[in-house]
C-alpha cells in the first residue's frame, strides 16, 4: 500500500493552474513533498509558495512535458532532492476550440504531444524510478471526453481517449507482471478552471465547460484521495458517469442531446469575447489560478463520487445491478418484437 501522504514524494505536472494547482495545495495541506512541473515559471513559483503556506514542501521545476529530455530532468530533480518518487501525477493538458478543418497540422501535433505523449513521458520517467524502488503509484488525469467525444473539441477528446487506452493497458500489464506499482485513471467531467481561458479558440466567443460543471477542488480532492487509495479509475461527477454510460448503451441519444439547434456548440460558449491569448505553444499572460468564472453554475461537491467511485464493492454492485436492468429491458424489447 502507498505511504501516508505526509511521507510521500509526489511529482505533479500541470501544476500552475486549475486542477493541478488545486491538487498541489491539497497535497500541501497533508504535508506532502511535492515536485511541481509546468511551463510558466512565475505561476509555478506562486503555486510552490501556496503549497508551503499550506504546510507542505515544494520544489518547482519548469518543464514542458512534450519534451522527453525535460521530463527525464524532472524525475532526476525529484530524486536528487527527496531521494525517491512515491506518486507521479500526469495532469498537463492544452486544447483548441474549433472545427477540425480550421486546425493546422502544427496545432494538432502540439495537442497530441502535450496531452498524450506528455503523459506517456511521465509514465516512462516514473517507471524508471519506481521499478528500482519496487514501489510507486502513477495517476493519469483523463476526462469523460475520453469515452464521449464533444464537437469542437474533437482532437482533445481523441487525446483523452488515447490516455484512457494507454492507462488501462499499462495498469493491466503491471498486474500481469505482478508489479507493486499501481496505476489510476481520474476521469473528471466539466470543471471550472482557467483551462478554457487558456485554450486556443477559433469559435469567436470565449469557451466554457459544457454544463454541468464542478469546482476544481472536487477533482483535486479525489486525486489527493487516490494518492493514498489506489483505484483503477475514479469518475468525478454523477453526470460524467451517466453520459459515458449513455454513450456506450445509446449513442444516438447523446446525438439527440447535442445536435438539435446546435446545442453542442452554443452550450460550450459564453457571451464574452475571447481575448485572443492561449497557451498552446507556450505560457500565456492570462491568469494562472485555481478557478475561473466559466459563465455557468459549478457544483462544490460530488456525493456520487465520494459514495460510489471511491468504494469498489459499492461501485461493482451498482454496475452489476444496472447491467441486469439493461439486459432485462433489452430482452423485454426483443421478446415484444418476436411476438409481433
Q: Could you outline the blueprint of secondary structure elements for this entry?
A:
Layout (H helix, E strand, L loop, with lengths): L8 E5 L4 H12 L3 E6 L2 H14 L2 E6 L5 H15 L4 E4 L5 E2 L7 H29 L2 E6 L12 H23 L4 E8 L6 H4 L1 E2 L3 E3 L5 E2 L1 H13 L4 E4 L1 H12 L1 H8 L4 H4 L2 E5 L24 E2 L3 H7 L2 H28 L1
Parallel strand pairs: 1-2, 1-4, 2-3, 4-6, 5-8, 6-7, 7-11, 10-13
Antiparallel strand pairs: 9-12
Descriptive report:
This protein has 340 residues and is an alpha/beta fold. It has two domains: 5-302, Rossmann fold, CATH 3.40.50; 310-340. Helix content is 50%, strand content 16%. The protein is built from twelve helices and 13 strands. The protein has helices at residues 18-29, 41-54, 68-82, 105-133, 154-176, 195-198, 216-228, 238-249, 251-258, 263-266, 303-309, 312-339; strands spanning 9-13, 33-38, 57-62, 87-90, 96-97, 136-141, 181-188, 200-201, 205-207, 213-214, 233-236, 269-273, 298-299. The strands form four sheets. Strands 3-2-1-4-6-7-11 form a seven-stranded parallel sheet, sandwiched between helices. Strand 2, helix 2 (41-54) and strand 3 (57-62) form a beta-alpha-beta unit. Helix 1 (18-29) packs parallel to helix 2 (41-54), helix 3 runs parallel beside helix 4 and helix 8 crosses helix 9. The longest helix has 29 residues, at 105-133. The radius of gyration is 20 Å and the shape is globular. The model is unreliable at 336-340 (pLDDT under 50).
Amino acid at each position: 500500500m502507498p505511504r501516508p501522504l505526509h511521507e510521500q514524494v509526489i511529482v505533479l505536472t500541470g501544476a500552475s493552474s486549475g486542477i493541478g494547482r488545486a491538487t498541489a495545495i491539497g497535497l500541501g495541506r497533508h504535508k506532502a513533498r511535492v515536485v511541481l512541473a509546468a511551463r510558466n515559471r512565475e505561476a509555478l513559483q506562486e503555486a510552490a509558495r501556496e503549497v508551503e503556506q499550506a504546510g507542505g514542501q515544494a520544489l518547482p521545476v519548469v518543464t514542458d512535458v512534450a519534451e522527453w529530455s525535460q521530463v527525464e530532468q524532472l524525475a532526476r530533480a525529484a530524486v536528487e532532492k527527496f531521494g525517491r518518487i512515491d506518486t507521479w501525477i500526469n495532469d498537463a493538458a492544452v486544447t483548441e476550440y474549433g472545427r477540425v478543418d480550421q486546425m493546422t497540422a502544427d496545432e494538432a501535433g502540439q495537442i497530441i504531444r502535450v496531452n498524450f505523449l506528455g503523459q506517456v513521458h511521465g509514465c516512462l520517467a516514473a517507471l524508471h524510478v519506481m521499478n528500482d524502488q519496487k514501489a510507486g503509484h502513477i495517476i493519469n488525469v483523463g476526462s469523460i471526453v475520453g469515452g464521449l467525444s464533444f464537437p469542437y473539441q474533437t482532437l482533445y477528446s481523441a487525446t483523452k481517449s488515447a490516455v484512457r487506452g494507454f492507462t488501462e493497458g499499462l495498469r493491466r500489464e503491471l498486474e500481469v507482471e505482478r508489479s507493486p506499482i499501481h496505476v489510476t485513471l481520474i476521469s473528471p467531467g466539466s470543471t471550472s478552471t482557467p483551462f478554457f481561458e487558456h485554450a486556443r479558440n477559433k469559435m469567436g466567443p470565449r469557451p466554457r465547460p459544457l454544463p454541468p460543471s464542478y469546482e476544481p477542488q472536487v477533482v483535486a480532492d479525489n486525486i489527493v484521495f487516490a494518492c493514498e487509495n489506489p483505484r483503477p479509475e475514479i469518475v468525478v461527477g454523477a453526470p460524467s458517469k451517466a453520459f459515458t454510460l449513455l454513450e456506450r448503451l445509446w449513442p444516438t441519444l447523446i446525438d439527440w442531446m447535442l445536435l438539435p439547434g446546435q446545442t453542442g456548440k452554443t452550450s460550450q460558449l459564453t457571451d464574452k469575447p475571447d481575448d485572443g491569448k492561449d497557451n498552446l505553444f507556450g505560457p500565456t499572460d492570462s491568469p494562472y489560478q485555481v478557478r475561473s468564472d466559466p459563465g455557468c453554475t459549478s457544483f462544490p461537491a460530488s456525493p456520487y463520487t465520494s459514495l460510489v467511485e471511491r468504494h469498489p464493492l459499492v461501485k461493482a454492485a451498482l454496475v452489476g445491478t444496472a447491467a441486469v436492468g439493461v439486459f432485462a429491458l433489452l430482452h423485454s424489447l426483443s421478446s415484444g418484437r418476436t411476438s409481433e
